Amino acid sequence: MPFIMQDRAMPEPRRDRLAALFGALSLALANTSAADAAMPQNPWNSAAPTPFEITDSGQGGTASDVSATPVQTYADLVDLALASRVVATATIRRQTRLKPDEAPGVAPGYARLYIEADMSALLVGPELGESLRFLADVPLDAKGKPPKLNKTQVLLFGTTVPNKPGELLLVASDTMFTWSPELENRVRAILTELVSPDAPPRITGLREALHVPGNLVSEGETQFFFATDNGKPVSISVLRRPGMAPHWGVSFSEIVDQSATPPKPETLAWYRLACTLPSAIPDRAQISTTAADRRIATEDYAMVLASLGPCLRNRTVTH
After folding, report:
1. How many CB atoms within 10 Å of residue 178?
2. Most buried of 43, 70, 103, 305, CB within 10 angstroms?
3. Looking at 126, 159, 194, which one is the last position of a domain?
4. Reduced to 3 states, what is the DSSP secondary structure of residue 223?
5. Would you indicate the residue range of the signal peptide (predicted)?
């Protein structure tokens, strides 16, 4: 039967061997609190090809709750995937609760655990081996005790620790989530889009907004051109036809396609627009020649934002 350490004193030889690891990882984890995660360098937003590959592996079983974090929205999961060099599923084998002086920055009502786990599936990242070791903050129960996590299956977002094979630093102190097939499938879909050569780029600003009226009353086209982190083109076109509701679509190529359509919800294209577009057209970007055309461009932009809907998040994430 696997050994589980729960609130009991660790044998001194073993505590001495792990003291250095506790100190190093705890200091790092203290900078990534559950409320405000300071994310590491983002590997996905680089224009250079990523060295990581998606791997296929099945997994079954259920797990008990290990986090008080609300259910993750699509935007939450993309935020975490963008911040992570490693995404993996694992089964917890052993846990050790750290003493308060070994766990700086732990939120009230939480405990920091040193966790040893068996790798189940490496969704993305470099080879880590069959065993993982990491720190995670978990909520305490009514008696002030952490949950017993032996054999719990979890999904992890993290980054590697230099020169420490098998050791993982979570991108935030609470980014160990109860595994489920639904959660893994959602994350796999996100990772697959992120590593695609034609993945939509991150939008950094609205460069130009131009409305051109047509020959008929209420006819015209509005185009929005965006700046991106890697220089790839992104544009939105809004078509107005007499007696018809305005129609819009997005293009991620040099061609401004009038047949383009809005992005589907819970896709990377939707995330890039809904979660990064400015809330209004900057004055410098309004290049229409008349006040009436600028007003229509403003209305069309508001229509696009309303169609996209809000970028809902249950986590606070900074990049």
Report:
1. 16
2. 103
3. 194
4. strand
5. 1-37
111 domain residue, yes or no? yes
C-alpha span between 309 and 277 (Å, rounded): 12
Hey, what long-range contacts does 96-103 have (CB within 8 A, 24 or more apart)? 96/5, 96/10, 96/18, 97/5, 97/6, 97/7, 97/146, 98/22, 98/26, 98/135, 102/19, 102/22, 102/23, 102/26, 103/26
The residue range of the domain holding 287 is 203-308
Say if CB 317 and CB 39 are below 8 A apart. Answer: yes
Domain of 154: which CATH number? 2.40.50.120
Dist CA 12 CA 9 (whole Å): 8
In this structure, is residue 147 part of a structural domain?
Answer: yes
Q: Both 80 and 220 in a single domain?
A: no
- For the chain, the average pLDDT equals 83
The residue count of the chain comes to 319
* pTM of the complete model: 0.80
Tens-digit pLDDT profile for residues 146-160: 999 999 999 999 999
Q: Which amino acid is at 297?
A: A
Helix axes 74-83, 181-194, angle to 10 degrees: 60
Tokens of 86: 């490693």
Both tokens of 247, joined, read 């129609």
User: Average of pLDDT values for 107-134?
Assistant: 95
What pLDDT does 257 receive? 72
